[in-house]
Amino acid sequence: MTQRTDQTRPGLDAIMGAARVAAQKGPPPVHLWNPPFCGDLDMRIASDGTWFYLKTPIGRPALVKLFASVLKREADRYFLVTPVEKCGITVDDAPFLAVELQVEQGDRGQVLNFRTNVDDWVACGQEHALRFEPELATGGLKPYLHVRRDLWAKVTRALFYDLVELGEERDIGGERMFGVVSAGEFFAMAPADSLQDLM
Asked: Rounded CA gap, 67 and 81, in Å?
């Protein structure tokens, strides 16, 4: 696998240019692009949502948003893509963070609206599910929100506590589960009798 260095930076410039052009017409249709693989960039998204290039944090939010707009996942790998180029990057956990929550009432009851760290708003529901995974280090739970096309946002710890406050118990398959409702969908966190152990 080819490792890109800053000597091959024109590839990164090409991605930036193509992303800017595509963004002028709305969200880039990365799901329609299947260009050849051109190697890996020294780019990483840390578990706290910080993007790094050549091991240096990318300090410009507009640039991070631009790269995020052309991010694509294939199996367990992540790429920045244009119509003609695909470059691999490293993602430590999830590519996005859910950093803000607004609750509103809709036709189907409570709707949880999340803002990501790249300023996308996502209404949780059937197409944008919540999932809760065990956190091995603490024995707690890690919540994730589906953003688009197999790209997920990790929900911050503060928002997780907000979700717990909004939670309720339901019988699912004969088991009493604790979870949260959004747009008529129930997203189970854990068995109701084990919740205290998972916080």
From this structure: 9
Confidence at residue 196, expressed as pLDDT on a 0 to 100 scale: 62
Dihedral, 62, 63, 64, 66 alpha carbons, nearest 10: 90
Q: Which amino acid is at 61?
A: P
Number of Cβ atoms within 10 Å of the Cβ of 167: 19
pLDDT along the chain (199 residues), means of 10: 43 74 73 89 95 94 92 95 92 97 90 96 96 85 95 96 94 93 95 71
HEC string of 149-192? Answer: CCEEEEECHHHHHHHHHCCEEEEECCEEEEEEEECCEEEEEEEH
Burial class of residue 97 in the structure, from the number of CB atoms within 10 Å of its CB (0-12 exposed, 13-18 middle, 19+ buried): buried
CA distance 50 to 73: 18
pTM of the model: 0.86
Cα torsion through 30, 34, 37, 42, rounded to 10: 0
CA distance 155 to 113: 12
Q: Which residues pair with 140 in a beta bridge?
A: 135
- In three state form, how does the secondary structure of 88-118 look? EEEECCCCEEEEEEEEEEECCEEEEEEEECC
The CA-based angle 45-50-56, given to 5 degrees, is 85
